[in-house]
Write a structure and sequence with these properties.
The chain is α/β, with parallel strands linked by helices. The chain has seven helices and 15 strands. A hairpin with a 2-residue loop joins strand 7 and strand 8. Helix 1 crosses helix 2.
């Protein structure tokens, strides 16, 4: 599957590196200027202002027609917005709300991506892409496993069914918010079979290729130790 996962963060200089591959994949699929769908949460003034960051960043890459679907809080995503698009970009913000709004569309998104449509996820959009989606929380069994600021309004770490575009769990803002420890705890507790944590300014792309300024932390169970995990870190060019 042609899946591009970005751990968050904003840097104009990195825009072509982080998003160019996604736009190019959509253009190959379209055979012309691709029609991209950007899905973002919120219709209030603050959300609309935040959405402008995506329009600006994708505008720096260019070479596409961008359609924006703004989903009001508490309402489901309209599946019809997926008709006739060449690539899907799911933005960031409140991860539990993205999951609640898009969950009904997961089977269709998975089908479209399986058929060759590229998917890009930024922050929350990356977190829900895995088979197991870490949508928030900062404590497991009452014990802190990451900074409280990463809680997304939840106390206990919540792992739900994701879109299923990549195996295991995906966490984001890895080094910047201390979330590597959360995905380590999730895998160690058996809540996901494996996981990755992606730094800001960093993209994990097709075939595991890493580009950008940071690292991707791969977490797998250690068969030789009960409850143990193995952590491997990768960066661009490795």
């Amino acid at each position: 599957m042609d899946v591009h996962l970005v751990g968050g963060g904003w840097d104009d200089a990195l825009a072509p590196t982080l998003y160019g591959g996604f736009v190019e994949a959509a253009a190959r699929r379209a055979g012309a200027t691709p029609r991209l769908l950007l899905v973002v949460m919120g219709t209030d003034a603050e959300s609309l202002d935040y959405h402008e960051r995506y329009l600006h960043t994708l505008g720096l890459v260019g070479g596409h027609e961008l359609v924006v679907e703004r989903v009001a809080d508490g309402t489901p995503f309209d599946h019809g917005a997926l008709d006739g698009i060449d690539g899907l970009f799911v933005g960031g913000g409140p991860t539990p709300e993205y999951h609640a709004a898009l969950a009904g569309a997961y089977p269709r998104i998975r089908s479209l991506v399986s058929a060759g449509m590229p998917y890009a996820g930024f922050s929350a959009g990356a977190a829900i892409a895995g088979s197991h989606a870490v949508i928030g929380g900062w404590r497991l069994d009452g014990v802190p496993v990451c900074p409280e600021d990463s809680n997304e309004g939840l106390d206990a770490v919540a792992v739900v069914d994701g879109i299923g575009l990549v195996p295991g769990a995906v966490d984001v803002h890895a080094a910047q918010r201390g979330n590597v420890s959360r995905v380590v705890a999730v895998v160690a507790a058996g809540l996901a079979p494996s996981g990755v944590a992606i730094d800001e300014g960093t993209r994990l792309g097709p075939d595991g290729v890493i580009v950008g300024a940071g690292h991707v932390w791969h977490v797998n169970r250690d068969a030789s130790a009960t409850g143990g995990v193995l952590v491997r870190v990768g960066a661009a060019g490795q």
